[in-house]
């Protein structure tokens, strides 16, 4: 699996997936900042699992939303807690509430945060024509 990070100009830094999808980022507000995108990936990943759970059972999702709250450590200035509050309507079937939580907990982003990968950051020299 590979993703290329490219610098198209200005403050933009884009991620290009192996299938050609471009995910733009920057710090000036015209696209998501990388850290905001990272945080959004947690809730949206859980949302994909919640959506799939409901669709498989024919449950409507128009009255469901996930509110993601982050707690910051005042010393390290890093997020030390993430809460995902799956808000449902009063008519959501009681028998599915626990299973809905379990489906959100299957999120791949959450699982990777719980068991983080090893990072290897290095440089390599590439000929200019190979970059185009």
Overall description:
The chain is α+β, with helices and mostly antiparallel strands and 132 residues long. The chain has a domain at 33-114: 2-Layer Sandwich (GMP Synthetase, Chain A, domain 3). It contains 4 helices and 5 strands; from the N terminus they run βββαββααα. The strands form 2 sheets. Strands 1-2-3 form a 3-stranded antiparallel sheet, with no helix packed on it. Helix 1 crosses helix 2 (97-104).
The residue-averaged pLDDT reads 95
Q: What's the end-to-end separation, in Å?
A: 20 Å
Structural class category? alpha+beta
Computed Rg: 19 Å
CATH topology of the domain at 33-114: GMP Synthetase, Chain A, domain 3
Main sheet overview: 3 strands, antiparallel
Task: Give me the number of helical elements.
Answer: 4
Question: Percent helix among the residues?
Answer: 25-40%
- Low-confidence segments, given as residue ranges, are none
Shape: elongated
- Quaternary structure of the protein: single chain
CATH architecture of the domain at 33-114: 2-Layer Sandwich
CATH class of the domain at 33-114: Alpha Beta
Strand order of the largest sheet: 1-2-3
Q: Which range does the strand content fall in?
A: 25-35%
Order of helices and strands: EEEHEEHHH
Q: What is the CATH superfamily classification of the domain at 33-114?
A: K homology (KH) domain
β-strand number: 5
């Amino acid at each position: 699996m590979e993703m290329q990070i490219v610098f198209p100009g200005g403050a933009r830094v884009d991620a290009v997936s192996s299938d050609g999808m471009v995910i733009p980022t920057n710090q000036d507000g015209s696209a998501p900042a990388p850290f905001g995108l990272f945080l959004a990936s947690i809730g949206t990943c859980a949302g994909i699992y919640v959506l799939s759970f409901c669709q498989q059972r024919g449950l409507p999702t128009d009255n469901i939303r996930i509110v993601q709250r982050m707690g910051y450590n005042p010393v390290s200035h890093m997020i030390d807690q993430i809460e995902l509050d799956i808000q449902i309507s009063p008519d959501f079937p009681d028998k599915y509430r626990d299973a809905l939580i379990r489906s959100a907990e299957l999120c791949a982003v959450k699982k990777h945060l719980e068991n983080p990968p090893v990072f290897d950051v290095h440089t390599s020299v590439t000929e200019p024509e190979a970059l185009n």
